[in-house]
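dude i think i finally got it to work??
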Amino acid sequence: MGSSEVSEEVFALVTVVAKRKGKTVDELILEYVAKDVDPGVRIEVYMKLHERYLREAEELYASGDLAQAGEKYWGAVTALINAIAERRGWSHYSHRDYAEVVERLSEELKEPLGRLFASVERLHANYYHNFLTKVNFDAHREDALKLMQLLKAIS
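look at this
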């Protein structure tokens, strides 16, 4: 096996745990590996993940793969949340933690980020159930992009 290969069995297990935590596989691995790394390095990795997920989301969206695109928008948003929470010393290891970070940031910014985050959660759910029409997907995508803009301003 090469350095970037993982057995199918291990990858399947990591995927199950990531799904349960509402994280991407990359975020889950980073969560466990990064405990031995300087916080500044973790923040940098989260920001690079954000950029990659957003780029991939836009490419998938342009090609019409809405279910996959929605999951990448979710990853782009949660990577930003991870970076912000890491910088502030806040917990960011579960879906509940993400919601709590969004609530804290809403209070801080005096801006109801929760509604925007709920739209991104809808994109995340659509990955598993593929129920959104294009018109609704587009509305949730706009909310995701607006939320990322607000989060980037404070990250």
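The longest helix spans residues 39-62.
im so relieved honestly
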